Amino acid sequence: MNISGKWLVILASAVIIAGSGGVIAGVSIGEEGQEQNAASQPDRDNGEMSSEEGWEKVHQAHDLIVEQYIDDVDESSLYEGAIEGMLDELDDPYSVYMDQETAGQFEESLDSEFEGIGAEVNMVNENVTIVSPIQGSPAEEAGLMPDDQILEIDGNSTEGQSLNEAVMDIRGEQGTSVALTIDRPSASDPFEVEVERDAIPMESVESRTIDREGETIGLLEIISFSTDTAQEFEDELNALESEGIDGLLIDVRDNPGGYLNSVQDIGSLLLPEGETIVQIEQPDGEVMATPSTLEEEKDYPMAVLINQGSASASEILAAALNEAGGHALIGETTFGKGTVQQGYQFDDGSEMNLSMSRWLTSDGNTIHEDGVEPTIEESQPDYFYTAALAVDETLTFDDNNDQVSNAQYILEGLGFDPGRTDGYFDEQTEEAVADFQQQAEDLEENGEIDEETAQHLHSAIVDEIREDENDQQLDTAIDHLISEVS
């Protein structure tokens, strides 16, 4: 087995990746009907085994299964199952085993491009849960959101599936579709979303400038912390500084994380020399701090945009810029992942990611399961959080359900006043739908929401969400930086 040398603070997942426990009465195992012990009993009151006794028990169990199980046994599956079983006992969703195919897909998800729906998923309370959709991905287009729980994949329940098994079912070739049954905390009933898989480009850094009130604010959007992200960040930052900027806004919203060294390198491009970027706490309690090596301090104010889809490496950067740099964090409390995984690659190409340490913020705080809190809290408009419309039957006057409520929020966000958002389809909602249909031109103007109207509503609200003028968090951050410049 080789140590891959890759330290991950990404969610340990891929992207878009009844028997009886007792003795059966009347049956004995062994030669000539004599019952045999599967392993020697430890001579201890507390029942704990030595390592030697434990391995002896495992070997005996293996031999019994291979030699006496009623059907043929695939021994390689037994070995893989043993590894998975040991990791399951850790009760750690980030310590995972991946077979050859899944390990390849995991590495691919940190590469420049892969095929799937473009969503980071994780196990949360034994449920396959979306951490964040990648910006511009089919998952985002379909309206999937952080904290959405995936109950079914193409009609098959995810209950009892491992994270890797669920990911394998979700991913697939470009142009094919997958139907996901979603349970959203804000919705009273599950709903189905069909997502068409596509090639997901993984450009990890995007940049642009925003001019307001005579000031130029540079915006650097980090989509993930992959292999080349730090170099991309440095190149884009240098380009912005060459243009001349009065402030810098770093956006790590819906960024699920990535490589630890990537965020450490970026920290050294922003924080003054000697300031702590992150601290790593080893199992023995030893803490190692990573200081910034930046020699020339930046002469412009900075701020960071965060939300509930900002995880791991995103949280490291946000916390560092706040605690060590004194810069504002604008948005919502982040995901809350404070452990670091190291990847171990086996000779056959399979891989195990194991939680090896905890990371602490610049000031030595842990954010695991709590997240990083914004210094300036700002939410988005209600329609940003609306579930995708899933219209199995046409929505009409006098209907009363969650889908009507979703449509009302969307109509409201598009400027068509439904008069209410409680899910009751009244006359004013009917009029708002008809007005939308009239403006769309290619829809029948009947005030009803069929599948075609629902698709038009969804496309229109996605376009609206992407407009800077509707991004309240971005607007608040720009205003803050301008006030800092002044």
TrEMBL record:
Record SUPFAM superfamilies: ClpP/crotonase, PDZ domain-like, PGBD-like
Gene Ontology CC terms, in alphabetical order: outer membrane-bounded periplasmic space
Keyword Hydrolase: yes
Keyword tags: Coiled coil, Hydrolase, Protease, Serine protease
Reaction catalysis annotation: The enzyme shows specific recognition of a C-terminal tripeptide, Xaa-Yaa-Zaa, in which Xaa is preferably Ala or Leu, Yaa is preferably Ala or Tyr, and Zaa is preferably Ala, but then cleaves at a variable distance from the C-terminus. A typical cleavage is -Ala-Ala-|-Arg-Ala-Ala-Lys-Glu-Asn-Tyr-Ala-Leu-Ala-Ala
Residue numbers spanned by region Disordered: 34-55
Pfam families per UniProt: CtpB_N-like (PF22694), PDZ_6 (PF17820), Peptidase_S41 (PF03572), PG_binding_1 (PF01471)
EC code: 3.4.21.102
GO molecular function: serine-type endopeptidase activity
An individual GO BP term: signal transduction
Presence of the UniProt keyword Protease in the record: yes
Residue ranges of coiled coil: 426-453
The PDZ domain, residue ranges: 95-171
Enzyme class: hydrolase
InterPro entries for the chain: ClpP/crotonase-like_dom_sf, CtpA/B_N, PDZ, PDZ_6, PDZ_sf, Peptidase_S41A, Peptidoglycan-bd-like, PGBD-like_sf
Domain of life: Bacteria
Similarity comment: family membership: Belongs to the peptidase S41A family.
Protein name: C-terminal processing peptidase
